[in-house]
Amino acid sequence: MTYSLQLFDDIITNPLKDGVLVIQLNRPNEFNALRTKLLDEIAQVLVRAEEDENVRCVVLTGNQKAFAAGADIKEMATKSPADVLRDPRAASWKVIRNFKKPLIAAVNGYCLGGGNELAMHCDIIVAGENAKFGQPEINLGIIPGAGGTQRFTSLLGKSKAMRYVLTGDFMSAKQAYEAGLVAEIFAPEETLDQAINIAKKIAQKAPIAVELAKEAVLKASDSLLESGLAFERKAFAVLFSTSDQKEGADAFINKRPPVYKGS
Ligand code: CAA
Prior knowledge:
It is built from 12 helices and 10 strands. By secondary structure, it is α/β, with parallel strands linked by helices. It has a single domain (about 5-190, about 205-255), classed as 2-enoyl-CoA Hydratase, Chain A, domain 1. Strands 1-2-3-5-7-10 form a 6-stranded mixed sheet, with helices on both faces. Strands 4-6-8-9 form a 4-stranded mixed sheet. Helix 1 packs parallel to helix 4 (about 90-100) and helix 6 (about 150-155) packs across helix 7 (about 160-165). The protein starts with 10 loop residues before the first strand and ends in a 10-residue tail after the last helix. It binds acetoacetyl-coenzyme A.
C-alpha cells in the first residue's frame, strides 16, 4: 500500500520506513490551521494505515513555527450552531480518536486550540524547546470543541486546566513537560527525529500487545470521557448562537481587540 503517491493538499506523507509513517501538516502560511480538508486528509491516511499491517506507528508533525494553531478561524467565523452540530469534522476526529495503532505528536512552535486537541489525541507528545501549548478559544468567545476541556483536565488536573482554558494563556514546553502534557523535550531541530526513534522502537514490538497496551492505558481515563465530550460538543455549538462568538472571530480576522457584551 502506498501513501506518498496519493496527492494531498494540506498534508505530506513520507514513504513508510521501518514501520513508521510520518504525516506532516502542511499549511505553513496559516500556522497549519486545521481546516476541514486537512482533518479529512489525516483521517483518510489513518483509515489506510490501520488496514496496512506494515504500518506499526504513526508520527504527526508540523513545521518549526507550528504544529497547528487550532481550527481555521476564518472557516469557522460564520458558522451557526446547526452547522457546528452537523460538522463533517466530527467524523475525522472520530477516526483519529479510534485509531488503534500508536500515534506520536512531534511538536515544534505553536500547538493551540484544535492543534493542542490533535496533539492530545496522540498517545505520546514530544516537543521542541520552542513549543507553546494552549487552549486560547476563550479569547474568541468560545470554548475548546474537540475534547480539549476533557483531555486537558485529565492530563493536567482541574486547577491547571482551568488556569489555561479560562485565560487562554500559552504554556511553554517546559511547563507542558512539568504538567505531564509532554513526555520529553528536545532541541527543536531534533524533535521529529527523536519522535521517529521512539516510533521505531514501538514498531519492533508485538503488534497485538501494542494495540492492547494502548487500549488499556486509554481505559484509565476513558470512563467519563464520552459524556464529557458530548457535553463539550453541545456547549461549543450553543456558543455559535452568541454575538460574542461572531465578535471574537471578526476581531481576530481584522486584527483588533474584541469587545464582548455577554450576548
Ligand atoms: N485560523 C486561521 N488562520 C490563522 C490561524 C487560525 N487558527 N492562526 C493563524 N492564522 C493566520 C492569521 O490569520 C494570519 O493570516 P494573514 O497572514 O492572512 O493575516 C497568519 O496565519 C499569521 O498569523 P498572525 O499574523 O496572527 O501571526 P502571529 O505570529 O502574530 O501570531 C499566533 C501567531 C499566536 C498563532 C496567532 O496567529 C493566533 O493566536 N492564532 C489563533 C490561535 C487560536 O485562537 N486558536 C484556536 C482556534 S479555535 C479552535 O481551535 C476551536 C476548536 O477547539 C475546535
